[in-house]
Amino acid sequence: MAKLMKMLQPLQSEYVDRRFDGTKDEYFEQLDKSSTLYIGNLSFYTSEDQIYELFSKVGVVQRVIMGLDRNTKTPCGFCFVMYHTREGAQAAVKYLNGTRLDNRQLRVDIDYGFEEGRQFGRGRSGGQVRDEFRTDFDAERGGYGRVVAQQIAASQLTMWQEVQAGAGMGAAALLGAPGAAVFFNQQQRSARRRQQQGVDAQNADAQQQQEEEQEEQVVLNPKLRGRGAEQEEEEDWEQQQAARRKRARLQEAAEEGDAAAAAVGDQQQQQQQQEEEEDGGEGAGEVGDEAGEQEGGDDGEGDEAAAADEEEEEEEEEQADDMGED
């Protein structure tokens, strides 16, 4: 059945995901409905924008999911492209499969559908499985395959150890002059880096030890403790004195304000008293004049009464004299 479907549909992908949870018939049924592509043989340096720009030429791209190394989370040479329609995905397989991007021939296949987690490499070192056992050198995909690279590094290290141990020039001859020089430079840089790291660690330990000793001396030496306490007390005293001076300045300013207000009040009160005294003097003069006039009237009336009395007495005396003569 699967072979018949592939014969009837020449665009049917040769790519098969072995981790698909289902039968082959179910797998190909999903392929018939899918609008998702698997893009392989990418350079590690190809960006998502480049993928989007290229595949947008044949249809409306919904999403681009870059394949990542499981450990480093960096691109590792594949991606998924999701179209809005099935027709867009088929056009991409028809027109873009085998095209070159970043000087690499792309592999474009219909995929059964993206699921979360499929964007990570499945190799032991975190990348794609094909890069684990690749024996050729590919600069666009990290150099040698991981297994071969590890074998080369191990053999170079062994040869270099033999050279350092004085086992002869046979190992150096196996490496070759250029390879031996490159490896020697790398080892020198690594040794200098380790040495510098050791020096930095020793300096950090010495500094930490010196700080701990200083703290211990402060704790054990009463003079240092007293000096710290005296310094704190002196700072507290200076702060208190500054606060007192500030309060004194504020109080003096308040007193000066009160004195100025009191002076203005006294001046106003004196002016008011002076005005009252002037008003009182004029009233007293008028009262005195009236009293004088009244007293003068009373004196006149008294003189008139005395004169009347004297006239009555003189008349009585004259009558008495007249009676004596009779």
Overview of the molecule:
Residues 187-326 are annotated as: Disordered. Keywords: mRNA processing, mRNA splicing, Nucleus, RNA-binding. Residues 35-113 form the RRM domain. With 326 residues, the chain is an alpha+beta fold. Helix content is 64%, strand content 10%. It contains eight helices and six strands. The protein has helices at residues 2-8, 24-33, 48-55, 86-96, 146-164, 170-175, 177-220, 222-325; strands spanning 36-40, 61-68, 75-83, 100-101, 104-105, 107-111. A hairpin with a 6-residue loop joins strand 2 (61-68) and strand 3. The termini are far apart.
SSE blueprint and pairings:
Elements: H1 2-8, H2 24-33, E1 36-40, H3 48-55, E2 61-68, E3 75-83, H4 86-96, E4 100-101, E5 104-105, E6 107-111, H5 146-164, H6 170-175, H7 177-220, H8 222-325
Antiparallel strand pairs: 1-3, 1-6, 2-3, 4-5
Please bin the fraction of helical residues.
55-70%
Work out the helix count: 8
The side-by-side strand order for the widest beta sheet comes to 2-3-1-6
Distance between the termini: 201 Å
Low-confidence stretches: 5-12
Q: What is the tally of beta strands?
A: 6
Structural class: alpha+beta
Outline the biggest β-sheet.
4 strands, antiparallel
Label the overall shape. Answer: elongated
How much strand content do the residues show? 5-15%
Summed over residues and divided by their number, the pLDDT gives a mean of 75
Quaternary state of the chains: single chain
Region (Disordered): 187-326
Subcellular location: Nucleus
Biased composition (Acidic residues): 274-326
Protein name: RRM domain-containing protein
